[in-house]
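Work Package 3 (structural annotation) set out to generate three-dimensional models for the target panel prioritized at the project kickoff. During this period the team completed the workflow that converts sequence records into discrete structure tokens, so that structures can be stored uniformly alongside our sequence database. As a representative example, we reproduce one entry of 299 residues exactly as it appears in the project archive.
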Amino acid sequence: MTTAAMKISELAPNLQMEFRRKAQALQMLPAVAVQALEVARDPECTIREFVAVVERDGKLAADILSMSNSVMFSAGGPPVLSLQQAIVRLGFRQCRNLILSTSMASLMKNLSLEEEWVGDVLCRHGFLTGVLAINVNKIVGTGFQGEEFAAGLVHDFGRLLLAVCLPEKFCTADPLHFDESPEMLTMERRILGTDHCEAGAWYAELSKLPSEFVEVIRYHHNPAACTKHRRLVALVAIADHMASYLQRFDNGNQYNLRDNEAVYVLESCGQPNVAARLADVCLEMMTSAKRDVQNMWSV
């Protein structure tokens, strides 16, 4: 059975117990963040109610305030000084994406693994995929407003989960070569009893992540099997394929966009001329994304 055909509930009970026991350090979202996401989903939610939740987490409140004053959102206007003004400027949708992004970024950078290099490599891959997803979103005009970066950041969470919970087997099952062949997931299932897509989606659902991010984690290696959020999943899969190539070969000079099957999945979602729009800028986009992520790590 392929990952695409598996249901989250089919994760073996013994693995569920092991993940629950060992993954306490992998809390994907702080309690306040979970509450804020729940409140933001309510169409009747007021700004005052949202502020009341977010202000209980000083870092989260500061991140939202900082984002609202960034060049991307301020549009040259006067600085906002209150959390309420910041939320008005950003909107609930962007605030929700920011909450997820900052929570996952904090988790990945502070995670303690037996093999520290594993955490560093996976963290870089998440950021690289997120940055590439932003660029692809702009070029092909999919219209996402931050979801693509957040989804890119969390897409490989299952690998972190497996590295933390099954460290003695993880590097055998996944040597982090970033080889996108279908055999990768088969190898994981044979050695670990699951793969990172299945395990990550199970834990993301358990952690109450929004459904679109659960679907990205579950289907990023098989976006054609996704039905509910296929456009976002396909977009992240495109970025993931590019990011994996960069991490294998350190540059995009020989990258062949025709090998990226997710491009055609995104086109099947009604997004026109994805391959044509990406073809001329692909190398420049990959080079720029790599540089951006390197700069993040040098700060």
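The chain has two domains: 12-110, 113-299.
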